[in-house]
Write a structure and sequence with these properties.
The complex is a heterotrimer of chains A (177), B (160) and C (653). Chain A has 177 residues and is of the alpha/beta class. Chain A has a single domain, classed as Glutaredoxin. Chain A contains five helices and seven strands; from the N terminus they run αβββαβαβαββα. In chain A, the strands form two sheets. In chain A, strands 5-4-3-6-7 form a five-stranded mixed sheet. A two-stranded antiparallel sheet of chain A has the order 1-2. The longest helix of chain A is centred in the first third of the chain and has 18 residues. Chain B has a domain of 78 residues: Helicase, Ruva Protein, domain 3 (Orthogonal Bundle). The longest helix of chain B is centred in the last third of the chain and has 49 residues. The N and C termini of chain B lie far apart (102 Å). Chain C has 653 residues and is α+β, with helices and mostly antiparallel strands. In chain C, helix 7 packs across helix 8, helix 11 runs antiparallel to helix 12 and helix 16 packs antiparallel against helix 18. Classes of the chains: A alpha/beta (177), B mainly alpha (160), C alpha+beta (653). The interface between A and C is medium-sized, with 20 and 33 residues.
């Protein structure tokens, strides 16, 4: 390589980079929470407003936190899957985080579509969700026995994600315990 | 999906500088007030340095996405509680990652980004100086060699 | 019918482009005059066919032919005529067609205005331009056909994005494209010169006016885009460092470097290989811009509706055109360092320094734009690079450049004695430093960035004016001013423009006052010495939108300065809300009002801006463009000295 061929090599590596770039998804955003403790919170429950749900209750369990809202169209898409997950054998508890929603509409929504959640915490102003770095509803977090976030899924869950990401993780976490 | 992953279905002409096409071009006007002008300055500065995560490429100050509004509210609260730039940056990156920062932090991963333009500049300057030095030395030796030969030939002629 | 005609014209144009790419090239290689001579008529045929295709699409827009899919998605029955015409390039397909038409225009111009250029050079250059044109025509026909029919045809059309329903769309993209594409001429000349083994001063001389002209249009295009963004978007920003803006800025920086290095190559025969490389890089960066905009590889607010197939096509095209050019460069670039000597203090060195600094700036823009992609591809980590990074780089690298501008124009070719630098330079340095440091004191809020900006801006202006003055002798000022070549005036004007721009950027950035306020009808708000009185809103229907219009009376010291009518529009077809800011422009400051949201009965959230010297940014850019134009005209019409013409005529093979 000399100073006359150098531009060609630099350019060709740029082309390779751009080619790789074409295959990347600019929308995907890795979460810095992975492997870190999930922010703890205590919020009123949707279906029992006098009581609070607190993350402390889930200590020692593997559980899913699902951020949803009745106005969110994509939440409908994953709902059947959530219901199936909740009813499966050795199911992990699913906690719903109702995001910036009207409680009445949220309850009605669950009544129509079914309720997969063990608890539903109401995040009326989205402050807890902000702590979790939520940027697109629905979002789902897998949290381990020690309260650390293991998986974060932005956008609706699919059967594929459950099979290839959630289930293996849950298995692994339970075996380790 | 009212907000979420819907990112500006772009309809537009491209290539032109500054035709920001997000879902809506209505400006975001929020009436905020702070105890001191320093706080207000910090607030404004932070809004331009933080990225709206769900927008195509807009800072918090330019976006009217729901998330941007929430994050602006958070920044406002933190500033009003007297927290400084570092605290706000730490809060944001702990939740959303480095992606939210329009001013990438200096680290191993961004070393090349920050250093290489300046490095290139220095290399260029060094090359320019070398070019001048080489030019003067080379052409001088070439000149004197030719001269020497000529002189030698002339001398030979003279002697013969 | 008309759409099919356009489609037909495009297809024939592609065939013609292939012929134009092959015949003259082969003719030049084998020295067959007839084949070389085919280049010009073929270039004219391109121009004719693309004009026909473009006219067809325009006709479809004007007559509301919604059976053409592109028209249906980018126009509407109620769209005013002006926007139906500019809407032709309001989307991906049409803007590509505009790109091709402009390339054909440049091709026609090359055919027409290079009578004195050696035939093989013209033939090769036109062949190279046809390769580029052919690639884009294939891109249009195979992935982005604007003439595709949509059946059954919709009745009304989906409408043009309201943001684009503006005079900005009519003028900004054409100017910008003329600039982008214009660099293909210098590119083609360079490839032709490399192929012919004649990378010499004559090549630089042919290239310079074309380079200047392309640069002028690119400058204007970028300026118009910045101005459009400022008044149309409701945020008052004029530059966002968005990847797509950077895509237009990189060729500008490289083109500016090229402009300067070509001067040295022409006048002194130095930096030949470097100028050739810059010519290739400048156009490559234009193509890279096309890729970035049309592939969706970067997240930008401007991007077209993207499609991976299109991205791949442009990438392959970019790889072929630029890869082949750089390979040719590696193979044929002159190896020998030109024996022309110059000293550390010389005009050559100043131009080289200019190139190094501009090169570093261009590299920082490229790096900042692509680094997130690079990092993600290598490590999966996502970061953002935005305005703070670019502003930092431009301050650090741009400031020395500004200092050099002031000195460079003074230096003689070859060697300049330090002692011969006039005393006026030190005076200018002292004056600008004093003024730059002192002036911010007047504002009541000292800003070091303003002090720096003012110092550099005043320095450039003083040294440039002094340089003009020094060209004249006492007692013969008028005669000497008249004898000064236009190119020198062009350079001076452009450099002064840089100074004006620096001052505008520094002052408006540091001293702008921005306030979001709640204001009710009848109330007054004071900002930066101006009293904004809000008189409430009225409904004001428009051609294809509904509008709420506010009225603001702006007073200073009880004197009415301006009456401003900001609007909030809702376009009927797309239901998009749009903020139309109201601006009172001025030489010393802009006042800016944008309506936000209604808060209750009569109160609104309103954004108010006071932006001092904002217009200087565009004024500076316009001066630069005007300077470039004057310089281009000078070269263009300067007849070659007889001696040179004779040495250039013989064909060498």
């Amino acid at each position: 390589m000399n100073r006359f061929t150098a531009p060609l090599w630099v350019f060709l590596s740029l082309i390779v980079l751009l080619g790789v770039g074409l295959t990347l998804n600019p929308r995907e955003l890795p979460s810095p929470l992975l492997g870190k403790p999930a922010p703890s919170f205590a919020l009123p429950r949707l279906l029992a407003p006098q009581q609070n749900f607190s993350t402390a209750q889930m200590q020692g369990q593997v559980w899913l936190l699902n951020v949803w809202a009745s106005w969110c169209a994509a939440c409908v898409d994953e709902h059947a899957l959530l219901l199936r997950l909740a009813r499966a054998e050795r199911a992990v508890p699913i906690v719903g985080l109702n995001y910036k929603d009207d409680p009445a509409q949220a309850s009605a929504w669950l009544q129509t579509l079914g309720n997969p959640y063990a608890y539903i915490a109401v995040d009326r102003r989205g402050e807890v969700s902000l702590d979790y770095g939520v940027y697109g509803v629905p979002e789902t977090y897998l949290i381990d026995q020690a309260g650390r976030v293991r998986v974060k899924q932005v956008g609706p869950l699919t059967a594929e994600i459950v099979e290839h990401s959630l289930r293996p993780w849950i298995q692994k976490l339970r075996e380790e315990a | 999906m009212r907000r979420a992953i819907v990112i500006a279905a772009a309809v537009a002409v491209g290539m032109g500088p500054a035709m920001l096409l997000s879902a809506s071009a209505a400006s975001t006007v929020e009436v905020v007030s702070f105890a001191t002008p320093q706080q207000e300055n910090l607030y404004r500065k932070m809004l331009t340095e933080l990225r709206c995560l769900v927008c195509a490429n807009q800072s918090l100050s330019d976006s009217n996405a729901e998330l941007a509004k929430d994050l602006r509210g958070k920044v406002q609260k933190m500033v009003a509680h007297g927290q400084n730039r570092a605290a706000i940056v730490a809060y944001m990156t702990n939740r959303y990652g480095e992606y939210i920062l329009y001013r990438p932090r200096f680290s191993g991963a961004t070393l090349l980004l920050w250093v290489s333009p300046l490095l290139l500049l220095l290399l260029g300057l060094a090359a320019a100086v070398r070019l001048v030095a080489r030019k003067s030395s080379r052409s001088e030796t070439a000149y004197s060699a030719a001269q020497l030969q000529k002189v030698g030939a002339l001398l030979k002629d003279e002697l013969n | 019918m008309i759409a099919e005609l356009g489609q037909f014209a495009l297809s024939v144009a592609l065939v013609m482009a292939l012929l134009q790419a092959a015949l003259p090239l082969y003719g030049a290689h084998k020295n067959i005059p007839a084949w070389m001579a085919a280049a010009k008529p073929l270039a004219y045929s391109q121009l004719f066919l693309l004009t026909a295709a473009f006219a067809s699409l325009t006709y479809c827009f004007v007559t509301h032919d919604f059976s053409v899919a592109y028209v249906a998605t980018h126009s509407n029955r109620s769209l005013p005529l002006l926007y139906r015409i500019s809407g032709v390039w309001g989307g991906h397909e049409g803007s590509l067609l505009l790109w091709s038409l402009i390339l054909a225009l440049w091709g026609g111009a090359v055919a027409r205005f290079t009578r004195r250029m050696p035939a093989p050079m013209t033939a090769r250059a036109l062949a190279v331009m046809a390769m580029i044109g052919g690639g884009f025509l294939a891109f249009i026909l195979f992935t982005s056909n604007p003439f595709t029919r949509l059946l059954p045809a919709p009745l009304v059309g989906r409408d043009l994005n309201p943001l684009l329903q503006d005079i900005g769309l009519a003028v900004h993209p054409p100017m910008l494209y003329i600039g982008y594409v214009g660099f293909s001429v210098v590119f083609a000349f360079t490839i032709a010169a490399l192929l012919g083994g004649r990378l010499d001063a004559a090549w630089a001389r042919w290239s310079r006016p074309w380079c200047n002209l392309a640069w002028v249009f690119l400058t204007l295009g970028i300026t118009l885009g910045s101005w459009w963004a400022y008044y149309e978007l409701g945020w008052g920003g004029w530059w966002f460092w968005d990847p797509v803006e950077n895509a237009s800025f990189m060729p500008w920086l490289a083109g500016t470097a090229l402009l300067h290095s070509l001067a040295a190559t022409e006048k002194r025969g130095v930096f030949k290989a470097w100028s050739a490389l810059l010519a290739v890089l400048t156009f490559s960066l234009s193509l890279l811009g096309a890729f970035l905009v049309r592939s969706g590889v970067l997240t930008s607010v401007h991007a077209f509706a993207t499609d991976p197939a299109r991205g791949l096509f442009v990438l392959i095209f970019l790889a072929v055109i630029c890869g082949a050019s750089l390979a040719l460069y590696a193979w044929r670039a002159p190896r020998r360092v030109s024996p022309v000597r110059f000293a550390l203090l010389s005009r050559e060195m100043a131009l080289l320094l200019n190139n190094i600094l501009l090169g570093a700036l261009c590299f920082s823009v490229l790096l900042g734009t692509l680094y997130p992609l690079l990092l993600e591809a290598v490590s999966g980590v996502k970061i953002s690079v935005g305005a703070p990074y670019f502003n930092f780089m431009f301050a650090v690298i741009g400031a020395p450049l500004a200092v050099c501008i002031g000195i460079g124009a003074w230096l003689r070719w070859k060697k300049h004695q330090l002692a011969h630098l006039p005393r006026s330079l030190s005076v200018a340095a002292l004056l600008s430093l004093a003024a730059g440091l002192a002036l911010p004191l007047l504002s009541g809020k000292y800003s070091f960035s303003v002090a720096l900006g003012l110092t550099l801006g005043i320095w450039i202006m003083l040294t440039t004016l002094a340089m003009l003055w020094a060209r004249t002798a006492r007692g013969a000022r008028l005669r000497d001013f008249a004898a000064t070549p236009p190119a020198v005036y062009g350079m001076a004007l452009a450099h002064i423009g840089v100074g004006v721009l620096i001052i505008g950027v520094a002052v408006s950035n540091a001293y702008s006052v921005e306030k979001d306020v709640r204001i009710a009808a009848g109330e007054t708000f004071s900002l930066a010495g101006y009293d904004f009185q809000f008189n409430g809103t009225v409904k004001a229907p428009g051609a294809n939108y509904e509008s709420i219009r506010g009225e603001f009376l702006v007073r200073k010291n009880q004197q009415l300065v301006a009456t401003l009518y900001p609007e909030k529009r809702t376009y009927l077809v797309m239901k998009t809300p749009m903020t139309e800011a109201a601006i009172d422009p001025g030489f010393t400051r802009d006042l800016y009002v944008a309506l936000g949201e209604p808060l209750d009965d009569s109160a609104w959230a309103v954004r108010l801006y006071y932006k001092p010297l904002l217009r200087w940014i565009w004024l500076g850019a316009l001066l630069m463009a005007l300077g470039g134009l004057i310089a281009a005209a000078d070269h263009r019409y300067r007849p070659l000295p007889r001696r040179e013409r004779e040495t250039e005529m013989p064909l060498r093979h």
